[in-house]
Amino acid sequence: MSLTFHVLWLLCGLCAATFASVAVVHTSAAARVWPWLALAIGFAGGVLTRSAGGSIDAAWVGGLSATVAALELVRPGHYLVTGAAAGALTSLWTGLMQAQGLPGVAAYAMAVTVACLCAYLSQRRPDFAPILVREEALLGLGVLALVVAMAPAISRGWQSALALNVTDGSAATPPLPVWMMSLVAGSVALGGAWSWWRRRRV
Questions:
Q1: Which of 60, 89, 122, 141 is surrounded by the most beta carbons within 10 Å?
Q2: What is the pLDDT of residue 176?
Q3: Residue 15: which residues within 8 A CB-CB, separation 6 or more?
Q4: What CATH code is assigned to 3-156?
Q5: Alpha-carbon distance 171 to 163, whole Å?
Q6: Do the Cβ atoms of 143 and 183 come closer than 8 Å?
Q7: Average pLDDT per run of 10 along the chain, which is 202 residues long?
């Protein structure tokens, strides 16, 4: 299996747990049931999409995950969107587990348990996922989601470049791809900007 598959597997699992945790902490006591309902609807939608023969597109999953993470960082409180995203990613995570050979029942049990347990503990124990941990997790997942979203196009471009280098024997292969250096620099800059912004808020 490709590197993109494993990174997508990791993204779905981490986003399912993180989004489920974030969705339940922004609601009042009277509205606590709504994130759980959104999670269930998102999960059912993911199951129906996969059962209808829909494939898991890394670019779409990465792009939507990055959008949800950015939305919660900039304007927190969209618990219905975050809950539905957690449910959908939980369903996609089960599909990726099954693609690795895990039985369906075990895949569903594992993914649902992780998402629901994170949501339950976040709702019942405020110290389980404090706001700083949630924000840092969303920031990290946003960067990872962007990597997953760009990975298919980057992989195709890099393979084409390698094929051209093989064809042209005089061309020297660069030691590191430019996109990798740009991604590392961008991630460091984003982390620094986020830390600076948080210090100004406090």
A1: 89
A2: 46
A3: 65, 68, 69, 85, 86, 89, 141, 145
A4: 1.20.1250
A5: 11
A6: no
A7: 79 93 76 88 90 78 92 88 94 91 92 93 85 89 87 58 55 49 53 56 55
Q: Which residue is associated with the tokens 């700083």?
A: 132
Q: What does the pLDDT read at residue 181?
A: 47
Residue 188's identity, in one-letter code, is V
DSSP string of 57-125? Answer: -HHHHHHHHHHHHHHHHHS---HHHHHHHHHHHHHHHHHHHHHTT--HHHHHHHHHHHHHHHHHHHHH-
Where are the domains positioned within the chain?
3-156
Which residue, among 110, 71, 76, 104, has the nearest Cα to 90 in the 3D structure?
Answer: 110
**Pair of tokens at residue 100:** 């690795």
CB 58 within 8 A of CB 4: yes
195 Cβ contact partners less than 8 Å away, ≥ 6 residues apart: none
Give the angle subtended at the CA of 24 by the CAs of 22 and 25, to the nearest 5°.
Answer: 70
Backbone phi, psi, residue 125, to 5°: -130, 100
| Model pTM score | 0.75
With tokens 């924000």, the residue in question is 135
